[in-house]
Amino acid sequence: MNNITKDRLATAMFWLGAGLVLLILGTLIAYIFYHGIKSIDWKFITSPPQSIRAGGGIGPQIFNSFYILILTMSISIPIGLLGGIYLAEYAGRSKMAEGIRVAIETLTSLPSIVVGLFGLLVFVNITGWGYSLMSGALALTVFNLPFLVRVSEESINGVSRELAAGSLALGATKWQTIWAVIIPSAFPSLVTGIIITSGRVFGEAAALLYTAGMSSPALDFTNWNIFSPSSPLNPFRPAETLAVHIWKVNSEGIIPDVRRVADGSAAVLVMVVLAFNFCARWLGRLIYRRLTAE
Amino acid sequence: MLKKRYFYDRLGSALTLFCASLVIVLTVSIIYFISSKGIATFISDGVSLREFLFSTQWWPDRPRAEGGPQLGALSMIIGSVLVSLFAVGISAPLGIVVAVFLVEIAPGWGQRVLQPAVELLAGIPSVVYGYIGLSLLVPFIRDNIGGGGFSLLAGFLVLSVMILPTIISVSADSIKALHIEWKHASLALGATRWQTIRMVLVPAARSGLITAVVLGLARAFGEALAVQMVIGNTRQIPTSILDPMMTLTSAITMDMGATIAGTPWNNALWSMGLILLLMSLFFIMLIRVVVRRGVAQ
Prior knowledge:
Chain A is 73% helix and 0% strand. Chain A is mainly alpha-helical and 294 residues long. The model of chain A has no long low-confidence stretch (mean pLDDT 88). In chain A, helix 1 crosses helix 10, helix 3 packs parallel to helix 6 and helix 4 crosses helix 6. Chain B is mostly helical. Chain B has a single domain, classed as MetI-like fold, CATH 1.10.3720.10. Chain B is globular and about 75 Å long. Chains A and B meet through helix 1, helix 3, helix 4, helix 5 and helix 6 of A and helix 1, helix 4, helix 5, helix 6 and helix 7 of B. Chain A: Belongs to the binding-protein-dependent transport system permease family. CysTW subfamily.
């Protein structure tokens, strides 16, 4: 076999590999939607689940997932953004910066079940809150923070240095320059990054099993008193999210229509995550065009 | 007026430093808390480290008078190692092939179609992978290959798809970062594209490729729910890839809520958590060594 034939064969192998990845993705998405669409209707996505009988929905689970996402993001975005600003603008090559980078790498590769165990110990037991939305949101913050710090550091590093230099030369302080010049220019990639990490948070389950819990109390969606245990807005009530629900119905297997509920939940979950993905691309491009007037 | 501006300037930089150092505080407290719970097995339950790591005898409820509790986690440790090594065995070659394809074979088409596909694959939540494994792969294995379906095979197939995006994107980045002159020099010497890839590009990107594989391995080792849903969770060392088995992560997921805090069984779960933590620290260190070597060359 001469070298040209070998080269051709190798090229075929590369195309085969790429085709295989596309095939896998296509199969997964098609499978999820083909089975999911059949069980999704208005009643399914709004009604509460059944514990023994068939016919339950996933309304509270969808609400819990979004609520915990909002709580997580409102804790982790400020910290992550400021942390990223430190790394990009102040840290330089100091020992401190090196330590922070090692810590970020460590947190990033930590299995999410270990984050969940830490959450169980600190946010559930030591705080005395029990399984609650807040404990879950704090555990997810631990899970999400390293990614957000990295996203904001990278977005800030992507801003041209001349812009900042111009602002400093006009007499602005470094802090003013960061908020009035650098952050606005980094905004498109910041938004994109934040939405993509939101998708990860939305689909996470292992870190939530033993922090937000695997049950949801009966919720009264007309009760807006956040201190009432039946209010959906109470952050100190247990809350099963959509991702946890998929796991729970399958591992318990009590309800007779596991298959239907799990198919529908998986399809809704994937749809939301895909929506986050597309939204991130689209919004990033839109804001970029607005800012640069291209 | 000027004073106020400088005050805010100082305050701002202090605030950013505070937030950044929170990351260190978190890391240290995770290591501290998990370790302090994880060593209880060895201190208060009197189980030796050797027994925990190298014995398969798992009798957490046996009273002390009858020689218990026995907490040998070997079958779960081997389970975790096997399932993640097999997964990497499939994903590493496939991932590197796809990464080379993205950068060298079809950059245009690859960027437009394959890159977003890889990102979507990375975005699918792990419970969904587990669920597809459970409802599609497990019955398929049961009907067409043999055994009960819940098996090591199902576990590592699910994992290999899950870690594929990590391996592809990290490998592709490291190949992209190579000097283009090396490729040009090789092609100019008359090498074919395949020879260039095999003898110049892949060896030159070696440290990045190893990093990609280690990151994939770390992810596979620590994955809990997707694996738990398809491996059958039988506490035994599998003798064939069609046997059901158990991993450290699946033991923690299933038993943490079913055992009472402070009992030997529960303590053993925290020790397993500690093993997961130590393994993830080990992988990080491994990557640092590989990267440093790569830079030194």
